[in-house]
Structure formats: C-alpha cells, structure tokens
Amino acid sequence: MDNPLTPRSNDKGLAAAAKANAPIENQEAGSFFKQLLGFWVTFVTQFKKPNTVQYPEGKVPTEERFHGRHQLNRYDDGLEKCIGCELCAWACPADAILVEGANNTEEERFSPGERYGKVYQINYLRCIFCGLCIEACPTRALTMTNEYELADSSRSKLIFEKEDLLAPLRAGMLQPPHPMQDGKTHTDYYLGNIKGGSNA
Amino acid sequence: MTPEQLTEVEMITVVIDGFEVTVPKGTLVIRAAEKLGIQIPRFCDHPLLSPAGACRQCLVDIEINGRAFPKPQASCTIPVENNMIVKTQLTSPVADKAQKGIMELLLINHPLDCPVCDKGGECPLQNQAMSNGRPESRYEGVKRTFDKPISISSQVLLDRERCVLCARCTRFSDEIAGDPFITLNERGALQQVGIYESDPFESYYSGNTVQICPVGALTGASYRFRARPFDLVSVDSACEHCASGCAMRTDIRRGKTLRRLAGEDASVNEEWNCDKGRWAFKYLSSRERVATPMIRGADGELHEASWPEAIAAAAAGLKGKRAGVLVGGRATLEDAYGYSKFARVALGTNDIDFRSRPHSAEETSFLASVAVNATTTYKDIDKADQVVLLGFEPEDESPIVFLRIFKQVKKRGLVVTSDAPFASRGSTKLKAKLITSISDVTGLTEKSVVIVGERLSETAGALSAAVELVNKSGAKLAWIPRRAGERGALEAGAIANLLPGGRPISETSARVDIQTAWSVPALPITPGRTTNEILEALNLVSDDVSALDAVVIGGLDPADISSQALSQLLNSFVVSLEISHSSVTAIADVVLPVAAVVEKSGTFLDWEGRSRAFDKGITDALTRSDVRILSMIADELGAPIELPTVSATRREIAAVGKWDGAKAEFTKITLTSKSPTGDKLNLSSWRQLLDLGSLQLGEANLAGTSRKAAAHISSSRAEKLGVTYGQEVRISSELGSIKLPVVISQMSDDTIWVPRNSQGSQVIASLGFVSGQVTVVKA
Ligand code: SF4
Ligand code: SF4
Ligand code: SF4
Ligand code: SF4
Ligand code: FES
What we know:
The structure holds 2 protein chains of 2 kinds. Helix content of chain A is 22%, strand content 12%. Chain A is α+β, with helices and mostly antiparallel strands. Helix content of chain B is 27%, strand content 20%. The longest helix of chain B is centred in the first third of the chain and has 16 residues, at 93-108. Chains A and B meet through helix 4 and strand 2 of A and loops of B. Residues 91-94, 96-97, 122, 127-133 of chain A line the site of one iron/sulfur cluster. Residues 239, 241-242, 244-246, 269, 273-274, 276-277, 399-400 of chain B line the site of one iron/sulfur cluster.
C-alpha cells in the first residue's frame, strides 16, 4: 500500500500550499497596491450590520437545544417527576450530581409512586453540560434549560440544590407534599394521563 | 478438608464444556462448573440451602454414558456422575436458548422497577438478563400487578411483583433459622411469598432473607432508597454486638454507615448474621454522641475542652490517687490491652475488671483457670454428640452459635440439653431436653460440648458444678459471654487476677514476662478486685485503707451491673471514655470521646478466641481509639504505656504472646439449690436479642420485630394466681416492681421468667437483682 504520508502527484492542494509558503523573492513593482487590496475586506465590513452583542445589556437567544442549566420538572399538579433513582448521577461522567432518595408516605408525598429525590445537587463547577444525565433519566424529570449564566463568586454558590433546580410552579400547580390527583395512580402519572392542576 | 476426609470421599470426573473437572461425589453440576470458572446463570441456587430447582434459570444439556437427557436439565439439582458430559450455554445452543426462554418468562411479569428498586445496580436479575437474556422484549400484554410493598415485618418489606419465586427466603427461614413464618402461597402467576396470618415474621434472622433474595422483592426498611452501590464504600468489619464473631460488610456513604451485611466466613457465621448485627448501627450517628472532650467545671456542669486540657485534667485527677479501672464488655482487644497496661503501669493497681454485668468471685477464678486461652470452637459443636447449655440461651445470647447447633440438630439429631427454666422458642427449635439441676446432665462423652454462659455465675456454685461435669466426662467446655469484647478483655488481662496472654498474676515468672515486655521495674501484686468490689471501694470514705478515690470507665452502663452502681460512683473522680452521652458521662469529671467501631481499627476475639480484626471504615473520622487516649493520659501521668496507635498495640500483643505455663487452680464452691420461701417465686431472666440495649437505640424498625415482653409461669401457678394467658401480673421485690402479661409454659411452679432488659421489663433497675425471690400477684 502507498505510504499515506508521501504526497501523491495529483495532490493540488499540497502543491498550492508549498507555493504559498515559499519565501517571497523579488517583490514586483506595484506590490503596494496588492497589499492595499488586502484592506478591502476590512473596508467593506464597515458598511455591514455589526455582529457584536453588548452583553450583558443585550442578549441573543441560544439555539433551541443548547445545553444550559438543568431543571427538575413537575407534573401538571406540581408533584415532582424525580424519583430519586440516581440514574443521572450514575451516568454523569464528571461526577457532578448527588442524589439521595427517600420514601414517599401517604402523609408526605413529593412524587407519584414510592420514591422521591430528597437531596438533589448539581455541582456546576464539575458539570461539562454533556447531557448524559438527561438521557439517563427514566421519567424526564431532568431536562436542560437554555440558561447559561452560571458564574458566581464562590464555589459553594455553584452547587445547586434541589430548590434551585426545581421548575417554578405554574398555574394550577401546588407545592408538594400533597397527594396524587383523586383516583389516579402512579401509572397514570407516568403515562402522562394527568391533566389540569392539583385537587389536593 | 483434611487428608483423611479426602480419602473417604469418592471423586468423580465430569466433562463440562469440553473441560474435565474432578469433584467429590455429590457435588452439583452448577458447583462443578464454578470450579472451572464457568458461570451458569441462577436464581434459586444457594450453596448453603438445599437444592430447589425452582427458577429453572440454570438449564444445561447433560449426557450420561452417551445417553442425552431429552431436555435441558437444572444444573443446580443434579449431582455429578461418572461419564457425565455437560454442555452449558457456552457450548450448547439448546441450553442457551432454554435459558433465554426462562429469562423471558421471568421478565413477563417483572415490573420495570429498576429505577425505584433498591436492588438496582447489584441485582442478579439485571445482570443475568443482560448476560443470558434476549436483548429485546417480545411481550406486549399487560403485566400482572400486586399492591406494593407489603410489610412482612417492621423491618422487611415485600414487593410481590418483583419476586421470581426462587424460594430462597422460605428455604432460609425454614432450614437455617427454623422460623418458617413465610411460605409460598397460591399457584401460577399469582404465586407469592406470604406470612401466616397468625404468626408475624418475627425471626431474629429475617435480614438474611433480604440479603439472599436475588431480586429486589425483599428489602430492608432501614436501607430503603438510601443509596446505590456506586455510592457506597464497602469495608470488611466485625460485629460488635455479641461474641458470635460474625464477619460483616459495612457500607458507608459519605462518612455515614448506611447498611451492614453478613460477611462470609465458613468457619464462623457461614454467610449469615442476626438482625441486631445487621440493623443496629444508628447509635453511630446518634445525636447523643460525645463530640469533644469535656471537663466538669466549678459550676458542676460539663464544659467543652481541648484535648490537651482534658488529658491534663484527667491526669491531674488520677495522679497519686487510688484508682480502679472498669473496662466494659465492648472494648476491642487492643483497647482492653490498653486498659490492662494502663491500670498496672500508670495507676499501679490490679483493680481492673471488664465485667459490667452481674458476676461473682467464683467466676473470676473460673475465668483465669478455665475460660482463658480455651480452645473449643464452632467445629467442636459441628462434631459434638451432645451440647449442654448452662446459663446460656443461644438464640438470644449468641445467635450464630444457635444457628450452628440448630444445623446439627436438623442434620443429624444432635442432642441438646439446657438448664433453661422453660422451653423458649430457641429451645423448642433445638428440641432441647430441659433439666432443672446441673447434676441431671447425663451421657457426656469426650465429644460433648458444655457451653457455659455468663449467667451461670449468677448461681453460686454452678460454675464449679459445670467444671466438675467437664472434668469427669472429658467433654469440651466453652465459655460464651454475651458481649463482643469479653473474651478479648480476658485475654488482654483486663481483670484482677490475670496479666495479658492469660498470665496468672500470682505467678512470678508470668509477672517477669510482662515486666520485661513492658520494661517496668515491677508490677503491682496486691490482688485486684471485681467490678462490684471496685464500686464498693469507691463508695467508702476516703480514709478507709481499702477505699478508692478515682475510676477510669470505658463503655459501660452501671444499670447493667446493679441498681446502686451509679450512685456508688458519685463521690469519686470519674474519667469516662465514651462514645455517647450516658448516665456515666452525666456524673463524670472528665469525658473523653472515643471512636466507635466503624471509626477505628481493632480486633474482637469471638467466644472461641478467634481473632476478628477489622480496619477503620470511616477513614477520615477524627475520633480516637481508647488505647490512644489512655496512652496520652499515661504520658501526662509520667508513667508512659507506649501504645500510641492500634497497630503498635497489635504488635505488642503479638510480641507478648500467650501464657504457656499452668493456669491457676480453680477455687470451687459447692452448689446449693435454694427453694423459694413462702409464696415467693424464684426469678429467672435473660436478655432477649432485641431489647433496650444501648447499641440498639433509635432503631424503631428493628425494635418492631423484638419479642413482646411477657412473664412465663407454669399453669398451676397461673391457676393459683388466678390469671390466664395474656392477663397481667405484678412482680415485686423490696425495691420496686414490674407489670407484665403472662404466658403459660411448662416449667417449675416455683419459678417465674421475665426478659431482663425489654420494654416494660427492666429487671435490674426495677427489682434490684437478677437472681432472687420475688412476690407475684395478679395485677
Ligand atoms: S450534563 Fe453531563 S456533566 Fe453535567 S451533570 Fe449531566 S451528565 Fe454530568
Ligand atoms: S432526575 Fe431523573 S435520573 Fe435523576 S434521580 Fe431524578 S428521576 Fe432519577
Ligand atoms: S422474595 Fe426473593 S428470595 Fe423470596 S422467593 Fe421471591 S425472589 Fe426468592
Ligand atoms: S450474631 Fe452476634 S456477631 Fe453476629 S450479627 Fe448478630 S450480634 Fe453480631
Ligand atoms: S438455579 Fe437451578 S433452578 Fe434455580
């Protein structure tokens, strides 16, 4: 087989590169104008719309699927989707997530089913925004928002707790703990059959 | 296996997947394959349980003498035979397909629970579904569902949807623990594990079912949803709860013990442990833990202090004083050795005792002459022709000893004789013959084992009678104390009449040994005193010649000794080395926090004297072992004991070695049986496994499975008192009384039995004694 490192004779690119890199010899007369020509791009750009964003006064929306800060989602009635399974923590290559599960009781219910995430922390000093945790989550509890403003003045402030990550309560949602909707089981929740707010 | 056994057993050679392997006759195919490193998937198979063939996951192709079985066979039920050719899933497509089929069947009704299941991440079903299952499910129907979870006991939860009906749990309960409270009910898709309606699952060994369940069907309430395997740091440890000596695994998450499992040690606990060892560990993280050294100030309150201040205060209080040492029954060998050396070198006294329970001078002599360096082991129980239990209730006081005896009773009808006053559940399971007097023991041979519990010392002369029995028959004697540290403390010389290694203090050459090892010019020779005598001496006015002024106390509860023990400490200088605040720290002058078991390394000696060494589990714990603290106090006293670390102590113990000379002569006393006077009854009691013990505090789930406190009396006594089953009686002494419901048992009319330290029945605190006479009336 050919040694892949030896240039093939028809490799025009290589030849062109060799030419471009050749030391400049015998500068012709008029080369000054050729150099001026090089300023053309700069000149024309003056009349184009500028790309600069005056951040933080001005902000441009990110792409829709930008990997930003995480969010812990809720069902329509405000119960948490997270079941504290730790699969996200398991998937995380940067060991950025810490979860401790706990038992839901009839008196104190945070999520449908038996288990909820009692402690939930993401360490944004470690997170590399790879999104593997999102893929691992079996309940779609964990998703990513487009929020990218994650800078702060101390390390501890960059460890986000559950209350920092939980989605805000929208209309009809009730802050857990509260019971599941009347007559519904955890299966209904998982299957997405929960519409409307809490009736607790 | 010993060479003689090897020659006895016929060996058989089989071919598995083209490899030959030679195994003893009777070996199951699945085990023979393991020997070759061939893993056949399995659920119900367990090496310590009888074969069940319940799950069918282990199917392989088998051919004997050229004739093949028409269908794949369960390799966990078929013993090897000559000319057998086995093809596992690795070489037989038929076996592979059969296994995949079984797996598919198992998964049809298995819920998609992995994310919420405690077994997730360490689940044989998950693993084997990956290794021996189909990649995709073909099932589109609706899965069978059950209500989940149901409580089998306050400690064990059952999720019937996840059960693969392997019958490991039921076989364990039936064969190993002898508590067949759970069974497989119903048939077909509805088959499920259930409890008998009338009998709750109150087994002392229920935790083992959680450990051996191959799926997440049985889970422990206290570990529920607490962690995933990848969060845990597992360390090998030893159990601190009793003298059985279980090997344990402790799982720690971020400096907190979350779970303890039975470790494997074929010669001790096999693969089992008891629920106390498994679940009683909240005391480690209790809010009552002593956090910093404390000194009692002029205002009479304890104040936090720095280590140097506290050590200086302890040394100042002990300097030049007549001081004693009470070690407590839970010290590790190294710590007990530290106390022993500290007493002799730094305090110049033999007033040291590890017994924090009722005891006697007879026992002191027994320990030094008979129990120390004794060599009876579990193996002797396995081979015994009779086991005699004296002052010892194995199921409550040393549960793994119970399992070993029970195993032999089941296997070959081992004869068990017990001096218990009534047939407890343990005795019933052992089919024990009950005797009322030690002289009733018959049929002892050299192969018999006489087990003596710590309670035998409560009857004057009983230990002497037991020794007599053993001397006459040549039977083996085992002393099985309840607490984990007692055997170690005995060997470390944490008792008045012994130096480390079981050296009698009265023996000059023994003293010279130790003097040389410790590089001290002399050792105290004044005879030391027992715990009771030390407590009495502390209570004497200080110009009495035999009075003591100060005491160093390890982890002990005065209420375990006697009802007045605590008040006897009030007038002395007390240095308390404790893990948690207790009645002793409440009156101590200096309190020094010490490390609990997972925070330190150390060694327990189980009842056999076998070493159960363990390493530090929580490596960044700041607490220190007792021996380190004693060493600092000794330095401050100007009489160093040179034991700066546990490992240095281990080295010194090894260097000192065991005493090879004669043991001291046992001072016998005669046994006198006392019948109760008037209408009084003899009180009898022992501690149940699960009770109000201080290491079980805060374990509500565990406490839920403890046996309800009840007083046992005979039927004619019940008639006389006019009570029937479940009605209450009041049992009283001069000091106080307790009220308990009665249970009618076959027992002597003169005796009443109550649990010693259970809810509503704290004998020492309420009645003031453990053996004596009480008045019983209908309440
Ligand atoms: S995005 Fe990646 S790095 Fe960040 S928490 Fe999720 S898995 Fe970990
Ligand atoms: S966020 Fe999702 S993956 Fe993480 S613990 Fe909660 S349910 Fe499990
Ligand atoms: S509960 Fe567990 S151990 Fe018991 S039969 Fe079911 S799967 Fe087996
Ligand atoms: S039997 Fe004894 S050593 Fe074993 S786990 Fe129970 S308390 Fe611990
Ligand atoms: S392991 Fe053989 S049938 Fe279950």
